[in-house]
């Protein structure tokens, strides 16, 4: 019933917008001569190495240099040159963003300005083409293939005023490839170590002579492993889209995608003893598989369908509606070392040797969800006296209907020096969790300009609800909780752009994010809230192509969950609590830092990007005294990166190019108490690439490009992060790929 109401509302909005389009077309019905139409969907999209504009920071086509907040863009060219084959790997050279803490291709999770985590606290990539990319209840988390992406926009700091609930650290918005007016075709094949093999294609161009109808068809297939035994990964993805522009004022882009992962892998975690710390029996190999090859699958299917509609009503008003349906289903079977308690079998259970045999548990999750996201916008560009306005009014709605059926089972211990893998275990599905989430938001934003001054003021009100139930399958007994939240968020920003391209700015923004679960007595939790102060400088030189940014911020999150010391298993019955301990919302986390970013083209054939990040994150309030003043797990104090790409443009070697990069990740803490034994050391990795345009060698090879990419060139073995004493992750070893592509 609810979904029918949602569909009816979406249909009504669509009909209203299309009626405006029909009226505009009818006005020109007498015109019989069709002129070529240039289609630009949702504003200008920079194609060069230095991007000057981004929509994520304002939902309007605004120059980055005029946005009083930290925003950066990873271009498609950068994805190609750096050999990024996942969203996480595409972000590794961006300031303020930490990726690769848990290697694998099952999920894309990030830390932004110190906010992120592992397991239920993970911060996944949440936005696709400006609309919420939902996550299921447990493991059913969508993943967008990097080959389907045109660019990635990173907005740092609270974004709730435009997007609703979310992590206060910021958001990552994936912008997919869309139809283009100029015909272009690409096919490629790629091979590499770890059994990697890929093929892909990307075709776009006009369908008709007038250019009113454009198409794009992109697809990719790949298989490889992660350098760990029994971790084969496979994927097929395809994304067709069609843009219709009946006139110069109207565009409608219909988009769809389908991704199938017959097996997406994730490296299994290991205890600190034997990875981070010395084990008396020897270290655990980085390619050791602690699971069971006979019980190790993660299959996922996800499909999307939606559209982007834009109509310029007149010189002032523009209407937009973006909508997307999504369906996802997954089936996960696997083993894991227990996250809590002891990871090790007793010496008596392992031939009299302690710390040799790992305990494990088997898990089975069958999940699916259906979601809808729609964003309606009305933009007015006008002036009052000397003040220019870009007014944005919006209403958006999100719904998720998710189910997770699960079961756990015990297994045998495994000797990590001499593993023996048993037969398939018998895991019975014992429980089911159902969830329905709704969020409706109304927002307004005014971007004002007066000479060199730029000022933004925005506000939003959200209504959010979560209906959740957990059912025991054997008895039918069910526990339910309903959470109803409402929140007002806002932001204000001021920027002054000097004639030489220097633009200092200051801003303030707030956020909220609903918290799932219940505390003592079944009381539902309030949303977490966040506030950020940010000042910075942007510099866009007038003499050469570059963008330099400096950002300093102070960000605080309240209502963070912490242990409820008044209600414990020793002094009361834990009524309503979801585990062996109750939680309450008296925690607080603060993150302060500085981010430096630079992207510049010294010449037409030499591009450089550099970044440095300092993050001072700490727990400022907690009921657990040992964690107060400590840094959250997985957050480095320092990060730095440098990447350069040079292409020879004269002489016999014209068309030959080289790229190289270095990434430094500072030390992180592997437990909440920041004990020295759980300190994860810093590491430095080197990447490299070479590429050659064969058309410069012989014209008959025009369009053929050869490329070789290597990440972690020197095959450094390192621990990327630890989430606890039982959960440490080895970083990805050396990856080498050779690509042959042909464009025409």
From TrEMBL:
GO biological process per UniProt: siderophore transport
Residues annotated as domain TonB-dependent receptor-like beta-barrel: 244-713
Taxonomy, superkingdom: Bacteria
Organism: Agrobacterium vitis (Rhizobium vitis)
InterPro entries: Beta-barrel_TonB (IPR000531), Beta-barrel_TonB_sf (IPR036942), Plug_dom (IPR012910), Plug_dom_sf (IPR037066), TonB-dep_rcpt-like (IPR039426), TonB_sidphr_rcpt (IPR010105)
Molecular function GO terms recorded: siderophore uptake transmembrane transporter activity; signaling receptor activity
GO cellular component: cell outer membrane
UniProt KW keywords: Cell outer membrane, Ion transport, Iron, Iron transport, Membrane, Plasmid, Receptor, Signal, TonB box, Transmembrane, Transmembrane beta strand, Transport
Listed SUPFAM superfamilies: Porins
The TonB-dependent receptor plug domain, residue ranges: 64-170
Places the protein is found: Cell outer membrane
Keyword Nucleotide-binding: no
Protein name as annotated: TonB-dependent siderophore receptor
PROSITE patterns listed in its UniProt record: TONB_DEPENDENT_REC_3
Membrane topology of the entry: Multi-pass membrane protein
Organism lineage: Bacteria, Pseudomonadati, Pseudomonadota, Alphaproteobacteria, Hyphomicrobiales
Annotated family: Belongs to the TonB-dependent receptor family.
Pfam families reported for this sequence: Plug, TonB_dep_Rec_b-barrel
Signal peptide limits: 1-24
